[in-house]
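Researcher: Quick sanity check before group meeting.
Model: Go ahead. Protein one:
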Amino acid sequence: MHEEIAPRPPVEGAAEGASTQPDDTGPADETTEPASAAQPAAAERVNARAVVLTCISLLASKAWEAMGLVPDPATKKLERHLDEARLAIDAAAALVDLIKEQVQDRERRELETLLTNLRLNYVEQRARG
């Protein structure tokens, strides 16, 4: 019996930029294991909480980059775009506000600390001109 392997959904905790698609290891007509045995990740459900936390992390990374404190991954240069930083920080804060009642105290404190650090650094960068 020949089965084609369907693409997998993104998996919680997948590295940024990592492919979530199956590897093309051979022709589709090769005998393969059943999808459930070959792809245990396909059965995993990605919940909305995990997606929101990932978005917060991405926005925070973008804010650090836009403040010129972390190099742009594409150009490897430090560039300041404070309006973008402000938008990323405000968006992350809005998401934290939405999810704060659904996370444990430790995680809530980490998110609040992240926002505080972003905001303090933003004010410092804005003061530098």
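Researcher: Fine. The other one?
Model: Protein two, sequence then structure:
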Amino acid sequence: MTSLMIPASQTSAYPCPCGCAECSGGGCGLECLEHPRFFCGQLLTDQDLTALVSWSQAKFRLGRFRHGWGIVCGLEVAVDVEHARTQPDNRTSRVVVSPGYAVSCCGDDLVLCQPETIDLGAAFENTMHQCQEPRPPAQDQEEPALWRFGGLKLSPGEVRVVDLVLQYQEQLISPQPALGHSARGQQPACDYSRSREVAKVDWRCSDLDALPAEEAALNAWREKYQAIIALVDEFKQQQGEKGSERQAQWLRKLIAEQEWHVFRFVPELAAITPSRRYSTLLFWLIQERLSALRRDQTCPECPDGDNLRVPLARIWLRAIYDRYHRRVVDVLHIDTTPSARRSLSLQQRWPARPGAINLTQFLWQSPEAVRAALDVYSVSVTETLWELDDIDSVQAGLGDKAFVAYGGDVTMYVLDTWSTGRRVSGFS
């Protein structure tokens, strides 16, 4: 049976031996959907029917924003024991992935129906698949850089590290003769009439120095947050010899440059506030920038280049030379911890380390709502009421804590705004 494997994004137009339209790529970001509408007397074409299928697929893929992506069940990674039994010293470079189900970052369903065996020996071969020598973590300078597995010490040249992934593809099958012209005026000799969804196990060389996408997002968010909170120290540094007037000039400039969306009364308030009370304006400026930081937390996007792959495991390989000087590759360690294997979970809209909560999502909410939300994570909350006065009160009211661990303790600072009620301004 003739078939053709194509990437997941090419579902409506693709190259084939019998002549088809050109490929059209596509991404997996959030997009507005458009479905075909049929009416009596309409001339239906292949494009109309394909549009219906494409709309259905896109509709199902939106589930990734509700339920997340990753491994749902199965897809366990283990050494190919049967092959190892046939090899000297029980060594093998083969691993087996059990049947299972996963969802890609784009929302595609990946179903592996049968166990799949993959040989990782090419990680040491002098080909395009060859991996670089992994650099061991920093160690005592008096000893050479070595990889340590328990009491076993290996040089970088003996070790390779690969990531095992599951990738979505579509396999075009069942070619049939084309009996008429297409809507585009083309007349191919034949075309594929079926598309089989395939989950393919693959591997790639690990980049141990690269930050995980979640870690990079967390670092970028933390830099923005710290820059906002640092405005308090910058305000204090403006004290100088001219006192509060210099602070007022510095702050008036920031207020004029700020795009106000939430606290739009502040520019008018600045015109009637005496210089000695400008610390209160600083508080509103910081709250406006924190609200902008919250608005930036849009629907999560897939990591570049990984939108079709689901991580299954990180595998450490070792090269051993037998008595005939032949290289034998052996699986040394299979890592299936969360850092190397993704179980079904939502991408974090609010960056935080595993087991922690980003507290800035609760800023400017009512203390009752915040307490109820944190109670879900067994976080103990203490409430402190404060008044907006001088710069020291502002700094205290903003708090110094952006994250809290599940089951931890936190103090929330509450400001009575009178018009909009009590609001949480910070945590410590």
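Researcher: One line on it for the slide.
Model: The first strand starts at residue 3 and ends at 7.
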